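Practice problem 4.
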């Protein structure tokens, strides 16, 4: 085995002019091998790499296009939502204004009702007082008529029964009573 390794080693020391042999210098052989591999990869892998990059580029462009479309749809939906919001805000303001005016109207109606209620209460009290007054007046008129009739009846009875002598005695008795009352008060 020693002869075989020795023969390869001895081949590495041959001068390179006009002969064929193996280069055992690791640094120079790696650079040559690396450049050969890169050249082959570039020559044969150029199409595959180009296809991969084109596919990637198309996917990125499609993603950007889809994102732009989604963005446009989102902006459109946002504008619609803003328009609906403005519309709802306007309606809310109208409801608020209408609500306030209705509240004020109801407040005025309640004030009127309260005022009307007080007026009705006053009218009811006045009516009751008027009824009581009219009842009292009617009672007084009935009493007056009754007394007038009783007085007429008494005067008629007295006049029919009273003669001059009885009349003079009654007057004298009344004058006597008045005189005695006068003495008591003096």
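Answer key:
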């Amino acid at each position: 085995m020693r002869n075989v390794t020795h023969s390869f080693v001895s081949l590495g020391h041959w001068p390179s002019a006009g002969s064929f042999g193996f280069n055992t210098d690791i640094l120079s052989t790696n650079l040559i091998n690396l450049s050969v591999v890169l050249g082959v990869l570039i020559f044969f892998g150029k199409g595959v790499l180009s296809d991969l990059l084109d596919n990637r580029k198309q996917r990125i462009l499609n993603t950007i296009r889809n994102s732009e479309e989604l963005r446009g749809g989102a902006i459109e939906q946002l504008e619609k939502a803003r328009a609906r919001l403005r519309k709802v805000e306007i309606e809310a303001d109208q409801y608020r204004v209408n609500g306030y005016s209705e509240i004020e109207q109801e407040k005025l109606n309640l004030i009127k009702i309260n005022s009307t209620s007080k007026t009705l209460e006053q009218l009811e009290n006045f009516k009751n007082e008027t009824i009581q007054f009219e009842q009292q007046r009617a009672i007084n008129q009935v009493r007056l008529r009754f007394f007038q009739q009783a007085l007429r009846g008494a005067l008629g009875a007295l006049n029919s029964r009273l003669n001059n002598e009885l009349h003079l005695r009654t007057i004298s008795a009344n004058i006597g009573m008045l005189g005695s009352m006068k003495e008591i008060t003096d």
